[in-house]
Amino acid sequence: HVSLEILDVGHSYSGQVALRDVNLEVSRGELVSIVGPSGCGKSTLLRCVAGLTRPGRGRVVVGGAEVSGVPDDLAVVSQDYSRSLLPWLTVRDNVALPLRRRGMPKESRRAAAGQALDAVGLSASARRYPWQLSGGMQQRVSIARALAFRPSLLLMDEPFGSVDAQTREELEDLLLRVRDEGMTILFVTHDIDESVYVGDRVAVLSRAPGTVIADLPVDLPAE
Ligand code: ADP
Ligand code: ADP
Q1: What is the reported pTM?
Q2: What is the share, in percent, of the chain residues with pLDDT greater than 90?
Q3: Whose CA is nearest to atom 16 of ligand 1?
Q4: N or C: which terminus of the chain carries fewer CB neighbours within 10 A?
């Protein structure tokens, strides 16, 4: 498992500054929520960490090594879940696909995919195709795929946006359990309650161009 350092990261799109001097350190096994107004650069920041966008300034260091290109021990759950599932594969095969990168044999891949689908409440849909499912179900499939992969670093961009309230609570608790196994997680949301419930810390980005204006520990009272 890895730690993450975001060091003086800045990024512009054709001269328009989206991110400015972002500094954030995340320890291994820590979940940091990122909140901030729409357009402040949250998705851009995740893309920089994922190696999908090369930041114009600064550095991203994962597990001691500077990110250049997409790290292989990373999973991303984006807002845009419907585009991330392959329509010609069943739900189970979509979830199992990245496990090949781990060199996992086929039978184990299927078993791991089955378990992850069970965890998100979709075992009954394993043999269906993504386009046969509702948006919220597709989103759960992409979450199951990330969880089955067991990455050291998990990046989530509004991952529970289109799931119903009860499922959302179940998924939040599931996320806390994987965090407890030592996964390092960045979790973007614009729901303040959610940021506090799942986060060990909450980093607040300013209005665009986004920079970290507060980085707060969360200390929820025991129930
Ligand atoms: P957030 O996720 O906080 O809503 P984004 O990272 O999506 O913010 O966007 C930050 C700013 O950068 C916004 O002004 C947005 O319009 C702009 N932006 C994002 N992606 C691109 C892009 N590919 N090309 C040009 N501008 C972009
Ligand atoms: P199964 O035999 O259970 O369907 P596999 O993991 O062997 O599972 O492959 C499932 C399907 O995924 C196959 O049709 C294969 O062509 C397709 N496939 C495998 N790897 C990739 C990939 N990297 N990108 C897109 N499709 C892939």
Answers
A1: 0.87
A2: 80
A3: 39
A4: C
